[in-house]
Amino acid sequence: MARKEYDKLIIDDGVYETRLTRKYRKRKPWEKQDPGKVLAVIPGTIVTLRVKKGQRVRRGESLLVLEAMKMKNEIFAPIDGRVKELHVTEGQVVPRLHVLAELEP
Prior knowledge:
Elements: E1 6-11, E2 14-19, H1 22-25, E3 37-39, E4 44-49, E5 56-57, E6 62-68, E7 71-76, E8 81-86, E9 93-94, E10 99-104
Antiparallel strand pairs: 1-2, 3-10, 4-6, 4-9, 5-8, 6-7, 8-10
């Protein structure tokens, strides 16, 4: 029988023991997302590019349209800045978390 490992958690001065799985222990550590990188939140097809490399954009401005499951999703600029790089073309199929564009302040 495998030995069970327990970790102690302290929450609001309460001490709790919990078992953590091997999968949990080997998980990829959380990294802060770069606000200048625009990622695909779902897999889909790039229908329309609304910006070009070098163009200045304002926060909330539409960058492109991503179609997924017959729905068109507008992808907006998360920050004010300039389009540093576009990593997609119209008609391209992209997976989830693919970098669509990079913006620089």
